[in-house]
Amino acid sequence: MAKGYWIAHVDVRDAEGYKDYVAASKIAFDKYGARMLARGGAYEQTEGRERARNVVIEFPSLKAAQDCYHSPEYQAARAIRLKYADAEMVLVEGVE
Fold it and tell me: What sections of 1-96 are H helices per DSSP?
């Protein structure tokens, strides 16, 4: 079964407030078997709109990635994130 991924590009407006999102989202990520592959760090913007923070999260499957995103736990974290950051996000199936 192919893994699933969240790919997000984020601009954090309030770093202190964003810490609350990070703590809240961990609950959902732990529940759905998420593994952080990239979170912030150095990058090179080669095309498209630049965001300061780039995140790649791996899940056991696309279904797990979708279930995590739509879960009550993540939606509570998302409500916090919306207060402190702007983002684009896609959930995508990996290749086997």
Answer: 15-31, 62-70, 72-84
